[in-house]
Each structure stands twice: as C-alpha cells, then as structure tokens.
Write a structure and sequence with these properties.
Elements (H helix, E strand, L loop, with lengths): L1 H6 L1 H70 L3 H36 L6 H7 L2 H17 L4 H36 L2 H44 L9 H39 L4 H42 L3 H28 L1 H8 L5 H10 L2 H17 L4 H24 L4 H27 L6 H28 L3 H22 L5 H5 L4 H10 L5
Length: about 550
C-alpha cells in the first residue's frame, strides 16, 4: 500500500499542472469578459479566427515538443543517462528555434492569403501580431518539456500563470487602445466597425505575445539557476556511450512527427469546422454579419467556457506521459495499468460534474460572465456540455498511448474520427439545416469517436480495463444529485434576491459541496486517494470535522 502511495505521487505533480491550467484558464476567462465588451462578438470572430490559424502553426512548430522532450528526457533519466538527457534537451532547443522561426515567417507573410481563404480577411492584423509568438513559444515549450521530463511540473505551472497574468493585462489595455485607433482608421476608409473590431482583436493577440515572452524569461531564469545542480549530476553519470547530436535530432524528429501528426489532426478539426461552416452558411444565403456573430459566440464564449475543465485533462495527460514512459521502459505493466486507472478516475471525477453543472446553469453562467449576451450562448452550452467529458477522456487517452510508445495509433484514430466528423457536420448543415449548433454537435461526436477508438487501443496494448463503478457510475450519480440541488438553489435565490450573480455563485458553491459530500458518502473517493491531491490532508481534516469522513 505504501508503494502505491509513493507511485501515486505523479498525481500530485499532475494536479499542480492541472491547478495551474485551471488558474490560467480562469484568468483567460476573466480578461476575455472586458475584452469582449470592447470588441464585441464580431471582434471575437476576428480574434478567434487568428487564434485558430496560430494554434495550427503552433502545433506544427512547437506544441508536440514539450510532450516529446518530456518523454525522451524521462526515458533517459530512468536509465541514469543524465548526459544524454541534457544533450537531447540542447538538440531540441536547436530544433525549436528552426521550426519556430520558419512558422513565424510563414504566418507573418502569408497572413493575408490565409485569412482570405478562411472568409475572415479582417483577422489579418491579429494574425500578424501573433506570428512572432510562434518562435517564443517553441523555445518556451522545450524548456518546460525538459523540466517535466525530470518529474517536476512547478516551472511549467508557475510560468503558465505568470504568462497568463501578463497576457490579461496587456490584452485588455491594448484591445481598448487599438479599438479606438481602428475606429478612426475605419472612419476614414468607410468601415468603422470592421476596422475597430479588427484592431481591437489585434490588441488582444498582442497580450499573447507579451505573455509568452514573460513565461520564457521565467523558465529561462529557473533553468540557469538549476543548471549547476544538473551539471554535478552529469559528472556522476557512468554511462560510457554519449549520443551524437545527429542521433539526438533523429530521435527528436522520429518522436515529434507522430505526436505532431496526432495533435495536429486531433486539433485541426476546428479549422475544418470554421472553413466548412462559414462557406456553407454563405452558400445557404445567411448574411455575413450573422455568420460573424454566430462564430464569435461559439469561439469567444462557448469554447472559452468549456475549455476550462478540458484543460485539466490536457495538464494530466502532459504530466502522466513521463511517468508512464518511465514505467513502460522498466517493463512494469502492472504499474502502467495502475497509473492509467488512477489518472482516468481523477479526470472523470472532475469532468462529469463540470458537464452537468454547465448544462444546468448554462444561461445564468453566460449572463453572469457576459451580461446582455444572446440566448444562443446558453443554448450552445446546453447542447455541447457532454463534450467536456468526451474531450477530457480523449485528450487523456491520446497522452496515454503516446506514453506507452504507441505513437501512430492516435494519428490513425484521429484521421478516422476527423473523416466521420466532417461527414456528420455536412449532414447536420445540409440535411437538418442547422447553423452553429451543427458545429457544437459535430465536435462532441468527434471527441466521442476518439474516446471509443483510443479506449479500444489502450485495452489492446496494455490489457487494461478501466474500473467502471468509481470512475463513471459514482461521479454520474453524485453529479445528478448535484444538478438537482443546483437547479433548485438557483431558482429559489433568483426569486428571493433577484440577482443573477449572487444566485449563480451560491448555486455553484452549493453544487460543489453537494457533489463532494455525495462522492465521499458513496465511497467514490477514499482517504488514501484524497491524500494524493494537493492539500489533501487539509481536505481530510475538514471532512472529519463535519463527520463526512470517519
């Protein structure tokens, strides 16, 4: 039992990264509220389009690097090859500078062509501001991956929060200043609204660039402070064979390419969605302004909110890969299965109540965050709430397969799911004449397919069968009870205090308490598992004080 407790320490590291991701997402959500008030749904369309294109090139230039570097460094550290781990890191830095610089130049000079093809030419300014960020993030991701490979998530976690704070401050200020400037430019050119929103969106993306620079400064400082310690560790390295840089680059490329293909195909669906939706909607006769507003609500409100809980799965996937790789390299299949089981449970315990809570409080949450927003925003949350569970599980299973060296499997699964996803989206738009709801449903269907395909693969290669009762059934039952409580608490308070903000906040707090109590009463979490999360001892003391845990 003590050994298991020791091995479950990787959950603590994953929790640190998950908490940082949640904090970062919340900061991102908070600053988007005043920014949306400035640039509007139309500006959100320009901002989000630029961001989707940027994210695609980010995947190509660097998003696969943290995962690949952490995996490769972890494997070498598990074998005691400290010198090779450091050489691999230096080779990855060279690779990141080349790939980041190349993508930055392509995006900057190709921005006009790309945004025109996406039916959103006014995203040009925001995309060009984002271009240099690709180089900065490539280097930043490599250093984060190195520390994750060493088994510490703290530098990544702190840098994420610092990055997002700087991002928030600059985005709000710059969007306001540039929106006013854009309005003046637009007044001269006869398109005041479009130019104001386009320049305001560019101000928002300026925050992303500055935030990335702040994050890079922080992790660089930590790296240079840690380097003397690591050099002393390398001097004790007894490995005689040192990998050449040509071998290192070859290993990096062979590891990066499958991860790159998997993550690119897994995330490229949003680019296809936007391109297909906007072109089909134009073909069906909808006005350009309606299309712009629909996509602005979908990308700037629906996706912004649902991505908060999904980020937990992304963080846990990133943190579990080095740990799974180390166990896999040591041929400890029992430990691999144990880690898959516990991390999947951890994510479902969070994702399921998030989905239920957002479904029940869809309209109140949207009105609280974006006062005066249309009913469409809440409607999209209700339609797509279940995708939080599917995306969380599919994101994690991608990381699991990569951690056990089945790099090609998520690529093949993503290609299959993407093809079916596109057919389903076309059916919804042409067959059922849906508008933006079609994109929400198609996204949920895509994530469900990835869950199924990846789940079958994990079962085949690891012979792992996920425990059902504690992972899925008890969180679902506890979430259903929570949903009922949340609904009645909100309905009662809105009649008594007539304040949506107070009613929503109190209902959310009541929901969290209800869910936690039901989950513990039903023995969905035990004392040992609570101890494996940050501040677990404090949580246990509080539960004992209220006689919930004995």
């Amino acid at each position: 039992m003590g050994n298991r407790k020791k091995e479950s320490n990787f959950i603590v590291q994953g929790s640190i990264l998950a908490v940082a991701s949640i904090v970062s997402r919340i900061i991102g959500l908070v600053y988007r509220i005043p920014m949306t008030a400035v640039i509007g749904d139309g500006g959100n369309d320009y901002y989000s389009t630029a961001y989707e294109i940027y994210n695609l090139f980010l995947l190509i230039s660097s998003c696969s690097l943290p995962l690949a570097v952490s995996k490769l460094v972890s494997a070498r550290m598990a074998n005691g090859e400290r010198k090779n781990a450091f050489r691999l890191f230096k080779g990855a830095l060279i690779f990141s500078v080349i790939s980041g610089a190349a993508c930055s130049l392509i995006v900057f000079f190709g921005a006009e062509f790309i945004t025109a093809k996406m039916q959103t030419p006014f995203s040009l300014f925001a995309l060009r501001v984002l271009a240099p960020t690709l180089l900065v993030v490539a280097v930043l991701g490599t250093i984060r991956g190195f520390f994750q490979g060493l088994g510490t998530m703290m530098p990544s976690a702190v840098s994420q929060i610092a990055e997002q704070i700087a991002n928030a401050a600059i985005s709000i200020g710059a969007s306001y200043i540039l929106f006013s400037y854009g309005a003046k430019v637009g007044a001269v050119l006869g398109q005041e609204e479009n130019y104001a929103q386009a320049y305001g969106a560019a101000g928002g993306t300026l925050g992303t660039c500055v935030g990335a620079v702040v994050g890079l400064f922080f992790v660089s400082f930590v790296f240079f402070a840690y380097r003397p310690t690591f050099r002393r560790m390398m001097r004790r390295d007894k490995m005689k064979k040192t990998e050449s840089y040509s071998d290192v680059l070859k290993v990096i490329i062979l590891t990066v390419v499958p991860v790159l293909l998997s993550t690119t195909i897994y995330n490229i669906s949003s680019i296809f969605d936007q391109w297909l939706f906007k072109n089909i909607a134009v073909m069906q006769g909808y006005s350009g302004n309606d299309i712009k507003i629909w996509w602005g609500i979908f990308s700037g409100k629906y996706k912004l909110l649902t991505n908060v809980p999904i980020s937990i799965a992304s963080a846990m996937a990133a943190s579990s890969v080095p740990s799974l790789t180390a166990a896999f390299v040591n041929r400890d299949r029992k430990l691999v299965r144990y880690k898959i089981n516990i991390v999947t449970r951890f994510i479902m315990v969070i994702a399921i109540p998030c989905a239920v809570g957002m479904f029940v409080l869809a309209d109140p949450i949207m009105q609280m965050l974006f006062p005066g927003t249309s009913e469409l925003a809440g409607h999209l949350i209700r339609v797509g709430a279940v995708s939080i569970v599917f995306y969380s599980l599919s994101t994690l299973s991608n990381g699991i397969l990569q951690g056990i060296n089945r790099m090609r499997v998520p690529v093949i699964n993503a290609i299959i799911a993407l093809g079916v996803h596109i057919v389903f989206l076309l059916f919804l738009m042409f067959g059922l004449h849906m508008t933006i709801e079609a994109v929400v449903l198609a996204n949920a269907f895509y994530a469900l397919l990835m869950c199924i395909l990846n789940g079958v693969a994990v079962r085949r290669y690891v012979r792992h069968r996920q425990e059902i009762k504690k992972t899925f059934l008890l969180p679902c039952v506890s979430s259903a009870a929570m949903g009922v409580v949340v609904f009645f608490v909100y309905e009662l308070l809105i009649k008594l205090v007539k304040s949506n903000f107070i009613s929503t906040v109190v209902a959310i707090l009541a929901g969290i308490a209800t869910y936690g109590i039901f989950l513990i009463v039903f023995k969905g979490l035990n004392e040992e598992e609570l101890q494996s999360v940050p501040k677990g001892d404090l949580i246990i003391r509080i539960l004992r004080k209220f006689h919930i845990l004995h």
